[in-house]
Specification:
Blueprint: E1 2-6, E2 13-17, H1 24-27, E3 32-36, E4 40-44, E5 54-58, H2 70-91, E6 95-99, E7 109-115, H3 146-157
Antiparallel strand pairs: 1-2, 3-4, 4-5, 5-7, 6-7
Helix pairs in contact: 2-3
Length: about 160
């Protein structure tokens, strides 16, 4: 099922598809679901180097933020900011990276990645070359039961 929505550009109309079979984020949930509503879901990405790495994934197939009506855009960002707050509360990272690319999976999603000065890539992007692995020995350990803590914090914030 597709529907037309008006973009913020008056001359353009975007097509939003409920599901696109070739899209990995339409076919799968994309990780362990921590929270969801009718518009989007928050998933935990399994990455040993980055515990707490989450994605906010829009449920319908949309490529760009501006394909969403303004209220849906605001909702998406409210969820992204809530995930960032939850990650900060649970992990106390040195920095949190927020990114929305969609080059590999052209389906609206945001990456929320807790970063530590001792992590495998800091201060470079997590997709860049790894630095000396000796730095990983001092990476802070996540708190016990951090997955449960993260899910509860998200439920409280959202």
């Amino acid at each position: 099922m597709t529907k037309k929505i008006a973009s913020h550009h008056a001359r353009h109309t975007r097509t939003v598809s409920e599901r696109v079979p070739a899209c990995v984020l339409c076919r799968t949930v994309g990780g362990t679901v921590l929270w969801r509503d009718s518009d989007c879901r928050v998933v935990l990405i399994r990455d040993a180097d980055y515990p707490g790495y989450c994605r906010v994934i829009w449920n319908t197939h949309v490529k760009e933020m501006t394909d969403l009506p303004p209220l849906r855009r605001a909702h998406c960002m409210r969820v992204v900011f809530a995930v960032e707050s939850a990650v900060r509360e649970v992990f106390t990272p040195d920095k949190v990276n927020l990114a929305a690319f969609g080059n590999m999976a052209p389906h609206l999603h945001w990456h929320i990645i807790p970063r530590f000065m001792q992590d495998a890539h800091f201060p470079n992007p997590v997709w860049g070359a790894r630095r000396d692995t000796g730095a990983l020995a001092t990476l802070p350990r996540p708190p016990a039961k951090w997955r449960t803590m993260l899910a509860r914090t998200l439920s409280r914030l959202l």
